[in-house]
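Hi W., the 6-O-phosphono-alpha-D-glucopyranose complex you wanted:
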Amino acid sequence: MCGIVGYIGARQAVEVIMDGLSRLEYRGYDSAGVAVNDGREIVIEKKKGRLQLLEEELKVKPLCGCMGIGHTRWATHGEPSDANSHPHSDETCSLAVVHNGIIENYLEIKSELKKNGVVFKSETDTEVVSHLIDFYYSGDLLDAVYKTLERVRGAYALGVIHKDRPDVLIAARKDSPLVIGVGEGENFIASDIPALLKYTKNVYLLEDGDVAVLTRDTIEVYDLQRKKVSKELTEITWDLESATKGGYPHFMIKEIYEQPHGIKETITRRLDENGLVRFDDIKLTREDLAEIESIYIVACGTAYHAGMVGRKAIEKIARIKVETDISSEFRYDTPFIDEKTLVILVSQSGETLDTLAALREAKKRGARTLAITNVMGSSIAREAEHVIYTWAGPEISVASTKAYTTQITCLFMLALDMAFKKDVLDLESYRTLLEKLKEVPEKIEAVIENEPQVRQIADKLVNVEHGFFIGRGMDYCIALEGSLKMKEISYVHTEAFAAGELKHGTIALIEPGTPVIALATQQNLFEKSISNIKEVKARGAYVIGITVEGNTLIEQVADDVLYVPRVDDLFAGLVGVVYLQLLAYHVSAMKGLDVDKPRNLAKSVTVE
Ligand code: G6P
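Structure:
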């Protein structure tokens, strides 16, 4: 969601900025723009649509200058249009501003500025920032930015340049991600690390309230009280290669294929000398756990679906009561949380604003907090009391796959660790379950090998408009994720139902040929699942059954069957979901859709 790149150095700023923005495309956007200081004035070029359109425009009207800022916008306030695209400016175009986040009190500020005769060119909240900076500017840009920050409420990552200061780029952050790339004789700002990797691996991770002043050779960071703060340099250990497609047609399929490796890493790097789970990054002792009476798992989107699986895992294995909630609901509900509650926040990016707000709310109420996230140094990782990193590597495709399966893996490991520490699992059963979890990567490999069959089934779904996913127990959690994948990247309207629930209304929608993807991986629920499949089959549904090898009975009721290798019930969903990812991927690719950057979606949602 909204990408920012800024540059100051000796290169042509536009080249660096456009390259950086292209690496942030995965965040989701609908327009893009750049501004440079060409030594005399601020020149801005911006366009609705893909970066390529802006690129073509820049060929006709090149912008020259060695410092500038750029932005990819994901519309919140005002439709996607040239005028609403960033950078925004003041009336005389003396400065340019790029912004990620939402200025909540912008209407109030806007009407004040209008009374003073300011004319607005866009419908955005951001434009008040550029006019305010101009309003406060009297020769000291940093002072004007500070005065502006004192006026605005909400979330922001900002990049600011001014025509009078071709030597200075100012950045600020609160609740929206922003990093500084440290080069030699050049410096950078960006919303995310992939935008910088071509130029540097040394970064400063800005904290909320940080304001940074960059020149070619210096970086100074101040807090909101204008006091200088010292920052620790972080060296990024992964390279640009891990953030590129590496021969695959799309990031999503590459990331699906990376899952066996990612899950294996997630497990094996966390085993101690006795082969038991050891989380270095969390310190929940036996005594701590004895005090915890209930757990909340809070997240959004796919991470929420991982949380649902985590709930089943913790309840079944560790016998602790777990609630799951969607972050945006949790914050405004009245959850029963206190110091005896553990709140687990699951977030690939570690920046989802609703999840971050839920974390803060939980802390305010005295709860213990644990983040499961993929991004080191992200806001959620930094603010939670404990962190488990998923180590999936950078996930670029908007539709989450490897982050999701590694989140589930971490939750299973957490469940095992908790169960053992709470003495509800003996050592032998612990080891047995852990061994079965360790088999998951090779079982997923077998699923991936069956991709040609998935492609054949996808071919039958290319023209459908509606469909259903059904499953019981753990399969229901997986069905929800399969349905979300199909909606988000293939634009097929699907819904997921607990298989036993479909007949309480929605079965009315089943017509001859309606696709129903039926998960039946749970042995103890297999016969009941077959009955549910029969119910839809009797109404003419086209049934794709997913079950474990050996359950051949399903062939009598399903039109197509995808088999998962034999695996413990607990982990069958984690393996089976890969079929659903592949199915959504192939339907999307066959329809010629933008698999990695589906319409209207953003990878990292930094607004409420
Ligand atoms: C967006 C993405 C989803 C993701 C969700 C939560 O909606 O498009 O793929 O699951 O945010 O993101 P998080 O980074 O918190 O896991």
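The CA atoms of residues 234 and 504 lie 54 Å apart.

W.
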